């Protein structure tokens, strides 16, 4: 059984279309578990209608808790799942995308194959690809080699400084969920945190299949970006928050070490320990540790920026 966790907020424009695509999933048993983060539009009314129409498929968690953002809302659902549900596998779902009807079944098949070798008691994460689409779900003309998703790294050093796993494409097993713990502000996003758990203490696998439309519109919290465009790079260089990027990555790594450090292989313990040394080192040594350890971003320009601003 799969539980699909959907964190909603002011999503009335697209959420019915997404729920229809979830209900159309074929070849896998699933339940959709939804928590709304205090929507002020008609989202909750839509969710209640679907819950009443499909009570065996849709659970609406109405607890009055305001999370204040997608990372907290998703982790609130993770906590609910850990305390109240028994699903073997968990997927994460955004409110504004559309899934192909085979997404759950194909991801489940890949997950079960990985578990055959890794074991069900080991955290396993499988993630797939997406079709970048506009508001009307027309594929957008963005060169795939310009997207972050075009080049994946699933090793711990790369994932410590950049996330390569989009939450709405991923499935985790119960071992990954049960070991996650509750929300901590050092988590940059729920998907990145689970990717680190799987890469450090288990198994992470990229399924080379496009299984959903990743809708881009003006209200996306996170979306697909042309990371090699001049505009994107200039915006990043001018963004004051980019200078805090390394500090945030180090804080997230410290959380990983606190919760999972003793479960890691000697190789991953060493990789995590070396990275944490960056926060205690002078500038020249920080650059050396990052370069020698492979703690670099997805392309040369971004890696240079990382080293200059670390």
Estimated helix fraction: 40-55%
What is the CATH class of the largest domain?
Alpha Beta
The chain-level mean pLDDT equals 90
Widest sheet: strand ordering = 3-2-1-4-7-6-8-5
Which sheet architecture does the biggest sheet show?
A: 8 strands, mixed
> Could you state the order of secondary-structure elements as H and E?
EHEHEHEEHEHEHHEHHHHH
Quaternary state, please?
Answer: single chain
The best one-word shape is globular
Quote the distance from N terminus to C terminus.
43 Å
Low-pLDDT stretches: none
**In angstroms, what is the radius of gyration?**
19 Å
Structural class assignment: alpha/beta
The tally of strands reads 8
Tell me the domain tally.
2
| Fraction in beta strands | 15-25%
Explained architecture:
The structure is a single chain. The protein has 310 residues and is an alpha/beta fold. The protein folds into two domains: 2-215, Spore Coat Polysaccharide Biosynthesis Protein SpsA, Chain A (Alpha-Beta Complex), CATH 3.90.550; 230-309, no CATH class. The protein is 42% helix and 17% strand. It contains twelve helices and eight strands. It has an eight-stranded mixed beta sheet with strand order 3-2-1-4-7-6-8-5, sandwiched between helices. α9 packs antiparallel against α10. It is globular, with a radius of gyration of 19 Å. 39% of the residues are buried.
């Amino acid at each position: 059984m799969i539980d699909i966790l959907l964190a909603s907020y002011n999503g009335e424009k697209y959420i019915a279309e997404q729920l229809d695509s979830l209900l159309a999933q074929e070849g896998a048993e699933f339940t959709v578990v939804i928590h709304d983060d205090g929507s002020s539009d008609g989202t909750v009314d839509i969710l209640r209608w679907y819950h009443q129409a499909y009570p065996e498929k849709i659970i609406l968690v109405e607890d009055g808790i305001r999370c204040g953002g997608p990372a907290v809302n998703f982790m609130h659902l993770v906590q609910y799942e850990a305390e109240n549900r028994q699903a073997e596998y968990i997927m994460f779902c955004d409110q504004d995308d559309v899934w192909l009807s085979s997404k759950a079944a194909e991801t489940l098949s890949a997950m079960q194959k990985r578990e055959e070798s890794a074991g069900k008691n080991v955290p396993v994460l499988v993630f797939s690809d997406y079709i970048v689409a506009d508001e009307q779900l027309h594929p957008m003309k963005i060169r795939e080699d310009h997207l972050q998703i075009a080049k994946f790294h699933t090793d711990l050093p790369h994932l410590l400084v950049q996330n390569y796993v989009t939450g709405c494409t991923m499935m985790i097993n119960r071992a990954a969920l049960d070991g996650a713990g509750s929300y901590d502000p050092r988590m940059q996003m729920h998907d990145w945190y689970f990717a680190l758990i799987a890469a450090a203490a288990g198994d992470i696998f990229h399924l080379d299949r496009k299984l959903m439309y990743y809708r881009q519109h003006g209200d996306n919290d996170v979306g697909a970006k042309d990371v090699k465009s001049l505009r994107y790079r200039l915006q990043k260089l001018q963004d004051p928050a980019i200078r805090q990027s390394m500090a945030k990555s180090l804080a997230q790594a410290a959380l990983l070490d606190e919760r999972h450090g003793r479960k890691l292989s000697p190789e991953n313990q060493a990789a995590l320990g070396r990275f944490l040394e960056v926060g205690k080192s002078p500038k020249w040594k920080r650059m050396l540790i990052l370069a020698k350890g492979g703690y670099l971003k997805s392309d040369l320009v971004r890696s240079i920026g990382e080293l200059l601003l670390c």
